[in-house]
Amino acid sequence: MRRVPEWLVAAGVAVSATLIAIVPRLIYNRFYYGGDMLESFVPSWHRIGTELLAGHWLTVNPDAWIGGNYAGEAAYGLYNPVNLANYMLTAKFEDLSVAAFVIMAEFLALFALATYLLCREYGARRAPAILAGLTIPFSGFTLFYEAGGWPSGMMAVAWVTLFWWSALRLSRGRTNPLFTFVIGALTISMGNPYAALGAVIVLSGIGIGLLIERKFFRLLVLAITGACAGTAALVTYLPLFLSVDVTSRTGSTGIFNDTFLQPQIGGAAAMSSPSYLPVITTFDGPVEVIPSLYLAWFVLPLLPWLQWERIRALFASAEFRRAHGRPLISLAVIAFVYFLFTFGPSNVGMFRWPIRLVEYLYLCVVIGLSLALSLGIASTVIRRRAAASTALIALGFYLAFSSSPALTGRHALFALLIAALCVVAYAAWRARRTSGLVTAFVLGTVVVTAAQVYSLTYDIVPDSRSDPSSTTRLSEQTDRYQGTVLQIAELESTSPADITAGRILFGNEIMASSVPGSINAYTGIGFTEFQNALCMDYRGAVCPDAYAALWQSVNANIAIPLIDYLRVSTLVVQNSLLPEVQASPPPSGWHITELSDSRTVLQRDIPLPLPLPGRVSYASDGVEVLASEAGATRETVRIGGSGGTVSFARLAWPGYSATVDGETVNADAGWHGLLEVAVPPGDHELIVTFHPPRERLSVTVFGAGAVVVLILTVLDPMLRRRKLGAATTLRR
Q1: Considering 604, 632, 655, which residue would you say is the last residue of a domain?
Q2: Which end of the chain is less crowded, N or C, counting CB atoms within 10 A of the terminal residue's CB?
Q3: Do 295 and 212 fall into the same domain?
């Protein structure tokens, strides 16, 4: 194996991870299509990708309303070219669950590759590094939470690991600043704040190591490179911070603990129990429904077999401490920080739900394990070591039983499976030493992963909720919708059959259909005033009281119904929520186009844009709207009359500006948060445009950072050569 090129081994790790990622989907074809994946990300990726393929890069999509501020959401990472490429790829898929699998397999493979490279950079041998790379992507939280439903987190941990490797190499002078800058910028710009946090923690850990080693020049190079890469945070997150005052995220500061998704340190003792369900406050109650604190089946049973005496002797050696001990300081610092975050309070500023960081802590664990395993396996006192491993397996069984006694049979089967796999691993080690052991561990990981997925999806019955993933089915259920759609429905009142069929849609699912625009959408930030007006939650669910409000005047000054103010052309009403709508004649100016057991669909008798063009929703008395050319980020309106106000069917996100005949005028939030502009008397051209707040400043700063890194990339090797030459001269 030593003769195989390093790049080929690394590629093999990535390919192997991809193949293992197929296993969960083979067992349950919707494994990678749950949670935020289906409610938020994939449908939006599909819509953004479709627009990109059509030549439109949208920072805001007014047709998606509360979910349409793509720049402000930050999570979509609009400035990350890898993200954009994946969005265009997603747009090519008819089955969104397949698209989700492909993208998640890509990042599981990247995570595996980056982990392998990082272990090698810290000094691990190939076989243990391969084991680490093929272990951490299939740990409980990463596979079941991140890859299964929180794709932004999956992308973040993969990018952070790759950045850690590149930054570590830069700190040792083994790569150039430009390479680390590019990876750092991709890491930070991918859109998840935990990626930015991870980059800071990694840089801090490596920086402390360099400081202790007194390598001040390498520290300076790393700091400058990291700071320049950090300018990508301005482009990515500044629109969010400058928009927060109008969103539900305002006031997300301070440190407090509501215990939600806060793991307890004792749960780590069951990290090798595949069926252990932690006692944590979650979305589903006080006990988890997935093994979120599981790391790998072999980690704890392997501990008695490590060569602890040799490890202690090495750390006691002055030569080892000089050569390897100091570089390992960065690993220790990073692990310590992630330990504090993982088992700390539930909310620290904008960072909440600390279990999200357990995979970073476990990454540090597998790096350390790969280094220890590189020293070999102990071959003395076999019976004692086997007894210790058995005791650790029994402990894992007991902890699993304690958390969920109703699944005792399942826990017992997993404990027996681990015991059997340990026997196989021991036999493989006796036959092929470390390579045989690693092979057995990897194959065991595949078996355990398959068993976990099967056991956790065993209770899923055919008629349970299964959100639609087919864009064809979505379009078939919505092909009669016209213009902007508003759905009055609540998730709790929706039958699984209606969700599966696509008759009632929540979140961003409708964005993957042929419908041009929907007021109902998923949002991670919200628009408080608008959501309050429609009693709408973050998934686009609307309370029944909103229906009556639609037919009432907006306010005393805007004497038109709210439904006209929003320019709604199609109204979808859930019958189980409002049965009286099904039994009553439609309101004046509307007719029923569909009447079924699940929904009543109403449409206007006279389609919009009459009487107002474009996205203009209201013009006060004295203002005549003559024409409008409307796009996603720009609208040009010809107006006349004695002056007044013009309102638009656009949420007034920070970033909108307006000019009248080239002169800047205020573009403010009007009633219910819709964009409103005051116009003077006479004939004028009103232009409304949207740019993410401080976009030009952010891009300029990022560009300046790139220039600095380019200069540093030229200077770094020159200064290193000069320093090396000076050192050689002194030795002579």
Answers
A1: 604
A2: C
A3: yes
- On the 0-12 / 13-18 / 19+ scale of CB atoms within 10 A, 593 is middle
Residues 393 and 403: their CA atoms lie apart, in Å, by 16
Question: How many domains would you assign to the chain?
Answer: 3
Summarize pLDDT for 569-625 with one digit per residue, the tens.
999 999 999 999 988 999 999 999 999 999 999 999 998 887 899 999 999 999 999
| 721 within a domain of the structure (yes/no) | no
Q: 431 and 309 in one domain?
A: yes
Please tell me whether residue 617 adopts helix, strand or coil conformation. strand
Output the pLDDT for position 77: 95
By CB atoms closer than 10 A (0-12, 13-18, 19+), residue 213 is middle
The tokens for 370 are: 């790969």
In sequence order, what are the beta bridge partners of 568? 484
Residues 276-330 have pLDDT tens digits of 999 998 887 788 889 999 999 999 999 999 999 888 887 777 666 665 667 789 9
Distance CA 94, CA 83 (A): 19
pLDDT at 226 over 60: yes
In the three-class reduction of DSSP (H, G, I as helix; E, B as strand; rest coil), residue 536 is classed as strand
Given 433, 457, 481, the domain boundary residue is 457
In a domain, residue 586? The reply is yes
Within 8 A by CB and 6+ apart from 358, the residues are 141, 263, 292, 293, 342
Could you tell me if 508 and 550 lie in one domain? yes
Same domain as 345, residue 265? yes
Q: Is there a single domain that holds both residue 187 and residue 77?
A: yes
| pLDDT value at residue 460 | 57
Question: In terms of domains, do 170 and 319 share one?
Answer: yes
The answer to which of 21-35, 304-318, 688-702 has the lowest mean pLDDT is 304-318
Average pLDDT over residues 202-227: 96
From CA 392, how far away is CA 286, in angstroms rounded? 26
Percent of the chain with pLDDT over 70: 95
Residues of the domain holding 577: 471-604
Taking the C-alpha atoms of residue 60 and residue 243, their distance in angstroms, rounded to an integer, is: 13
Is 443 among the domain residues? yes
CATH number at residue 620: 2.60.40
pLDDT at 347: 87
Residue 504 resides in a domain: yes
Residues 493 and 575 in one domain: yes
Rg (CA), the chain: 29
What DSSP character marks residue 147?
Answer: I
Q: Which of 465, 471, 481, 456 is nearest to 508 (CA)?
A: 471
Reported confidence tier of residue 726, pLDDT bands at 50, 70, 90: low
How far apart (Å, rounded) are the C-alpha atoms in residues 432 and 420?
Answer: 18
Note the pLDDT of residue 283: 85
Q: Are 531 and 661 within one domain? A: no
What is the C-alpha to C-alpha distance for residues 513 and 427, in angstroms, rounded to an integer? 54
Give Cα separations from 588 to 534, 595, 596, 604 (angstroms). 21, 18, 21, 9
State the Cα–Cα distance between residues 29 and 97, nearest whole angstrom: 8
Cα separations (Å) of 531 from 125, 158, 235, 350, 452? 55, 34, 27, 21, 39
215-229, 305-319, 514-528: least confident range: 305-319
